[in-house]
User: Fold this.
Amino acid sequence: MIYNFLNNYKFKGEVEFEIVKSRPNIIYLIKNNNEFYIVKFYSQYTKIFNEVSILQLLNFKNVQSIEIIRNNKDKYITPITGGEKMYGVIYEFLYEQEGKQFNSNKNAKNLLNKYMCFKEVLNTHYNFLNTESIVHYNKEILIERPLTKIKGFKNIAKFTSRLKEIEGKFSSKTSSENIPTQIIHGDLHRGNILFSKDITFIDFEDIGWGSPLLDISSLLIEGDKRSSEYENSIIKESIQYFGSKSVEQDLFYYKAINYLVTLSRGDVLISDTLITKYLTLIEDCLLKGGL
Assistant:
């Protein structure tokens, strides 16, 4: 499949490649004449359409993003013939600069400012996207489904009482947000943020309607691995941006949701130690969120 796909592009000389991810989409790293590129294969056209549309939009608005390589027909998206119906695209490979990571108050502020700029571009021009197929990040998606999956773990019985208490706290949450539902990234973890010439967001497969605090709370989780200075800066800048002190408690609520979703991605062999760790993190966040 990869050979047939690459024939649609004007590469000169030998092309080396290796698969770096196989699910849910196939991703290759390729090398040609000492230049690197990323190849992504999608089974859903709407997913790749939205990703390409967002990158085009960000480039048009001069927001740092990844360049898409055009094929021999001057198109961004290449249908893959034979076998399962799939679509492919090639992106430039961005090198990260050392030291530009989540390690300071200044970087946290820059990161949040870049996210707000990214979010505003998407929400001002979302008519460019196929919004009918994107996710709606409601309580069913964020809380009920993850809890149901966790309850299916083979070794979860000993944690039943803690899960019931956590479920009750999530259910008791009343909406203190005055932030309207918007188009958000939906998966803003460290792997989808590049520090190259500028801060660059990638991987828009999970864009959807939801609270921007869901994205920002993902940045708080990255702060747990670094410093309280970083986390405090994210919270402070968020309060200032949205103009409400209640944002801090709401951020911890969404942070708890992010931990819940992460835990639910485990399988039946997940360890008691890992379950204990994540339940404790969720409980701590809910407490800080006033629940």
